[in-house]
Amino acid sequence: MTTKSGLGDLIRVVTLCEHFGVFTMVCINKYDINEEVARKIENFINGKGLKLVGKIPYDDIVMKSINELKPITCYKESIAEKAIEYMWSNIKKLCKIDKII
Q1: Do the domain assignments include residue 9?
Q2: For residue 30, what pLDDT is reported?
Q3: CB under 8 Å to 42, separation ≥6 — which residues?
Q4: What is the value of pTM for the model shown?
Q5: 37 within some domain
Q6: Contact 49, 20 (CB under 8 A)
Q7: Crossing angle of helices 79-95/60-67, nearest 10°?
Q8: What pLDDT shows up at residue 93?
Q9: pLDDT by residue (tens digit) across 34-84?
Q10: What is the CATH number of the domain that holds 21?
Q11: d(CA 33, CA 14)
Q12: Is the residue at 101 inside a domain?
């Protein structure tokens, strides 16, 4: 999430992934809540040479999906759902996946 603590968490996770040589991709959740922190996250990942695969906006429909115990992909009107579909497309390209697993 786009908070200072979220950025700190990202830095710790990236450091851990670097230590173990784990390929890392990044998605910024609720990026539009704090665009200043979102820019700092983007600057950090660009500086590390990481792939930004998606940016998910805040969306009230996510809470609806949680309350109704349905995946967000069931709500085609959701802007978060569209961002997640776009992110999955990017992940498949980066991982060279031809079909959904």
Answers
A1: yes
A2: 95
A3: 28, 52
A4: 0.86
A5: yes
A6: no
A7: 90
A8: 92
A9: 999 999 999 999 999 999 999 999 999 999 999 999 999 999 999 999 999
A10: 3.40.50.300
A11: 22
A12: no
Query: Token pair for residue 6?
Result: 């979220």
> How far apart are the C-alpha atoms of 54 and 77, rounded to whole Å?
18
Q: Is the dihedral of CA 10, 52, 57, 64 positive or negative?
A: negative
Residue 1 has pLDDT above 70, yes or no: no
Domain range for 74 is: 4-95
Answer yes or no: is pLDDT of 28 > 60: yes
Residue 85 lies in a domain: yes
Which three-class secondary structure string do you get for the chain? CCCHHHHHHHHHHHHHHHHHCCCCEEEEECCCCCHHHHHHHHHHHHHHCCEEEEEECCCHHHHHHHHCCCCHHHCCCCHHHHHHHHHHHHHHHHHCCCCCC
pLDDT number for residue 100: 56
Contacts of 15 (CB under 8 A, 6+ apart): none
Number of domains present in the structure of the chain: 1
Of 82, 76, 78, 77, which Cα lies nearest the Cα of 62? 78
